[in-house]
Amino acid sequence: MRLPRELHRLLFLIIPLVCGCGSEPASNSGPSADSQPDSPQQVAASERADVSQAGTASLSVAIAPKPPAKPSPEQIAKWDVPAYVPLQLLACNDGFDDPAVQCLAVSPDGKQFALGGSKLTLWNTQDAQPTVDLLTKYKPDEVERPIRAAAISADGKWLVAGDEKGTVRIWTLSDQKEVVAIPAHKGYITELALSPNSRLLATTSYSGDVHLWQLPEGKQLKSLKVDKQKIHHLAFLSDDRLAAAGSEAGIWNVETGAKETALTTKHLMSPALALSSDRRSLAFSDADATLQFWDVQSSKSTGSGWRGAGAQLISFSHDGKWIATYANNSEIRIWDTAAGRLVQVIDADGEQTSALEWLPNCNGLLISSESRLRIWGTADAAAAIGMKSMVLPTPATPVAGAQQAMSPAQMQRVIDIRSFPRLPGAVPKMNEFGFSTYVAPATQADAELYYRYALEKAGWTEAPPSPMTPGLIFDKDGCRLNVSFASAADYGTGTAGELQVSLQFEGNYDARWLPKLPVSDWKGTHESFSSCMYRTKTALTDAEATLLKQLHAAGWTAYTRLAASGSEDPRSRTLKLLQGGSVLTVSLQNPADSPNELAVQTNLNVSNQSLPLPPDAGWIEFDASTDLQCVVNTKMNLQDAIDFYDNRMAAEGWLRREAGRHTKDGKAWLPYVRGQQDLFLRLAELSGGGTRVVVGDAASSSWQLQPPAEKPVDKTSEPGLQAADFTLPAGAMAVKYDVDAKNIEFEVADTTPPKLGELFAKQMEALGWKRDGAGIVADDYTFITYEKNKAEIQLRSRPADKKATAMIGGDGMLWTKPLPTAPVRISYETWLRRNRYDATLDRLDAFVAEMHKIPVQSPNK
Q1: In this predicted structure, what is the pLDDT of residue 709?
Q2: Across residues 113-134, what is the average pLDDT?
Q3: 146: cis peptide before it, omega within 30°?
Q4: Is the Cβ–Cβ distance between 708 and 800 less than 8 Å?
Q5: Nearest to residue 291, comparing CAs of 253, 247, 333, 320?
């Protein structure tokens, strides 16, 4: 299971603190909670004040640091890397009406390429439209679409493609005439490859069999059983050797039919392979997400795998200098082949990337997605292709002193830490837009010297140290970057002598700019660029409502995370808010040492997935864990909302697209692209006025997009058991009826999970429910299910410090009768969801008034 990005980052930040590598304790003589620096200079001055007042232990370090050492010429020669000119988007073709692009093939001269999907189109590289669709002359029952595999022979004579029926067709590339149609497989063609002499064709389907055919006659020569499962990639290393990747990767002798080499021994989750244009190097992914290399001439591994670079798609540039990879993680990565260094990350969320291929002679990169084709390259590549580069919108320049978070595009113009140079021998551990960490064989002194040198060269200025932030601090264009170090052995990510290096890009928004509640006199109060902590005597509901209003006035938009589940504690709140490319988390809870106060903690992170939000959208539904999803309400009418997005999207670097754009019957569909990212906005007029904006597949997880609630009916006769009627065990404590998660939670002292299971079984059987299977009955975990009229109720129980915790739930538990517990105050988010109100801040006052009618629960309960 993939952990959320926030949890990954939190784990990497917490462990050094436990190991003694973190920041010093907070000082009660730090800056005032009301101070809000207006500029980077004031921020730096404030941090210098932090340092000067931090106490004797840090005084000698902060006020009189040793002058930084200068790198030696030998170190500079070792650290400097060749200049890299980033690829830019040269062309974006999305008007060819093929919503199912699956494959891509490039001619050896680089002048033509073919796209396979619901069509099979042939293109010239400089044209924005295909020259021909080869499938138009066929009857619907002759070709079953989509086309999943296509290839062009090395001599440029043949274009080959396979359809869903398992039929492979061969055309002459020069005049697009069919030479032969081969009934190659019983199922759809997943992959095909052509030998270097253009006389041998290999085809495969979902069965794992590879059939070999003679060209151009289409005569079958033999069949190889290469895998038990679907083969994803094929490549001829020579006329008699074939590499294949499916559940494993290997090399086969096509003359003898024998496997020559097992490239992998473990089951591959992400099978991929690619051959360099000179057929000397084979790259493939192994089971540990490492990109491995095989020397074709010596038939040996090069022994220089790139950890963390495994991918589903791999492509060598034709001069061999660069490798492009796509790992199904919304990123396309460009690597320096000689150094194994990541030089560019292209965000690719939106449509799924289906293929990527380099163009010969110019190092232009073709990238196809579900319905778009893009060409990437440099200005020289565009000139070599004979095409005019498209004009792209330039992100607006941030307004100095505006206390406004930059957009992701503006942040990336400052730095992309994912591809920023690293120490020699770096092994990546995590590589995200805002947080990157790796392990390298280096001392901390060398690492500090390296980053002072590399970042100064990139235009960054080292800021004074802060007792609240470990490591080095750098500033550029109002943005902040923290570089910290820890022993890899202590950290559990490496061995003795290795250093873990973490880079955290914090954007340009200073947490000290945030509005605050009245601050209590508490010695633990502290502030830094990315976080603040203080206490207040404001009551929880009032604190939540006040902060929502204050933060909205400061340009922040609160959100409910789509597709998220869980329950809330009536004694705490967690608010999530967005502004530009910054994400703010505000935590409110009663501290154990002072239950009449609220501890307020604010933390800022950055994200490369966001979109402009109307100023009046105080609350939205939002998720960016995979593809961007969003539900936004605004009081603007439809046309004003369209104008707003067209203007703001351009200001944040998005390019308006005309294909698929239209307005009809109070609705509008607005497509945009930015680089390799796709965004499609659906706007609709609301019956009460205003406009709703939906991005992505949010319907299944948004309460606002659910069908209207049915009229209340008597459900007392519905099969099931009312939660209010469920008899809790004697001595049940900490009882919680969670009407949102639809379960009952409780604890029982001096008992075990199996004993609770026995009590649960007796009660359910007495009510006529039947046990469904044996379940799990053990001291460390008990899970039992009872069934009646196809409805189920389960018990889950675990031990915990001389007691057992339990949770009762399932679709057989009904929640229509009043519960035997007093109502508790809930969060504004839960209140909106339960009442099926539109997401907005307009009802905040009504929410507060309703909560004030409910007695406050004692913090000690």
Answers
A1: 56
A2: 93
A3: yes
A4: no
A5: 333
d(CA 373, CA 353): 10
CB atoms within 10 A of CB 370: 16
Q: CA geometry: angle at 716 spanning 710 and 718, to 5°?
A: 75
Q: What does residue 214 show for φ and ψ, rounded to 5 degrees?
A: -90, 135
CB-CB contact of 511 with 604 (8 Å): yes
Q: Which long-range contacts (CB under 8 A, 24 or more apart) does 426-433 make?
A: 426/501, 427/307, 427/308, 427/494, 428/307, 428/308, 428/342, 429/12, 429/308, 429/493, 429/500, 430/8, 430/9, 430/12, 431/308, 431/342, 432/5, 432/8, 432/9, 433/408, 433/505, 433/606, 433/607, 433/608
DSSP code string of 711-775 = PP---TTSSSEEGGGPPPPTTEEEEEEETTTTEEEEEEET--HHHHHHHHHHHHHHTT-EE-S--
Half-sphere exposure of 267 (CA within 13 A, CB side): 4
CA–CA dist 825, 856 (Å, integer): 7
Max Cα separation, the chain? Answer: 88
Cα–Cα nearest to 455, from 441, 477, 474:
474
Length of the chain: 861
Q: Which residues pair with 743 in a beta bridge?
A: 738, 809
From the centroid of its chain, how far is CA 367?
Answer: 20
What's the rounded mean pLDDT across residues 293-320?
91
Pairwise CA distance, residues 826 & 832, whole Å: 10
pLDDT digits (tens, 9 = 90+) for 784-794: 999 998 899 99
Other CB atoms within a 10 A radius of the CB of residue 563 amount to 14
The span from the CA of 677 to the CA of 437, in Å, is: 25
- Distance between CA 743 and CA 794 in Å, rounded? 10
pTM of the model: 0.85
State residue 528's pLDDT score: 94
Rg of the chain's alpha carbons, rounded to an integer?
Answer: 31
Distance CA 786, CA 794 (A): 6
pLDDT at 32 over 50: no
Closest by CA to 355, choosing from 376, 377, 325, 322, is 325
Sign of CA dihedral 704, 707, 713, 718: negative
Classify 453 as helix, strand or coil: helix
CB 476 within 8 A of CB 482: no
- Average the pLDDT over 48-61 and give the result: 33
Nearest CA-CA partner of 719 in 789, 770, 787, 786: 789
In 220-259, which positions are buried (b, 16+ CB within 10 angstroms) versus exposed (e)? Answer: eeeebebbeebbbbbbbbeeebbbbbbbbbbbbebeeeee
Residue appearing with tokens 């990879």? 325
Tokens 């820890």 locate to: 486
Identify the burial level of 424 via C-beta atoms within 10 angstroms of its C-beta, where 0-12 means exposed, 13-18 middle and 19 or more buried: middle
Average pLDDT, integer, range 71-81 = 90
CA distance linking residue 448 with residue 501, whole number of Å: 10
pLDDT exceeds cutoff 70 at 59: no
The strand pairing partners of 850, in sequence order, are: none
Contact 443, 486 (CB under 8 A): no
DSSP 3-state of 462: strand
Q: Which of 319, 323, 258 is nearest to 292 (CA)?
A: 323
Please, which residues bridge with residue 679 across strands?
672
Using alpha carbons, select from 846, 856, 858 the residue that is nearest to residue 825: 856
Instruction: Measure the N-to-C terminal CA separation of the chain; round to a whole number of Å.
Output: 34
**What 3-state DSSP class applies to 23?**
coil
CA 521 to each of CA 20, 162, 587: distance values in angstroms, whole numbers, following the listed order: 28, 73, 19
Q: Containing H/E element for 120?
A: strand 120-124
pLDDT for residue 585: 98
